[in-house]
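ingest -> validate -> predict -> emit
validate: passed (alphabet ok, no gaps, 168 aa)
predict: started
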Amino acid sequence: MTIQGALLGLTMATGLILVVAGLSRLRHTPMDNRVLPYLRDLPGPRLASPSARQDRVVVGVFAPLLASLAHTVGRIMGGEESIRSRLRRANLDMEVADFRIEQVVWGAVAFVCAAIPSAFIAAASPSRTVPLLILCLVLMVLGVMLRENCLTSGARRESQVPEFPHQR
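emit:
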């Protein structure tokens, strides 16, 4: 048995455990979903929906990490006033910190999209691990920059006034 086979087996077992756990949760209707429809007419404090509570948990867990990474991106990229003016011109109702968090998410998605196939390639050929890691990091940076580019094009598109009215 090779190390790659062991890692593949561990990954497969973890995936199967997650699927089985997810299926068992899908089969059982939570008590809130069964009882809340009958309690909506009653006066009293409103109960948060299960999805809203899950969102708060996710935000509570990842918010400090995202804020820290967004601060790092802001320190490296700079131009907070420029971002603020482009957000205003693009008619986006968000703060610079929220935009920086979006940049971090875009970078993370780009990194993961590159890392998944890179992991399989690196497992097959360990000598390619370092170049693939560099590729993943470059794509992460490009994801961050792509979000800023999308903001710039959105601001440009919103600020352009058509010279001729559209005729239909």
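The CA atoms of residues 54 and 60 lie 10 Å apart.
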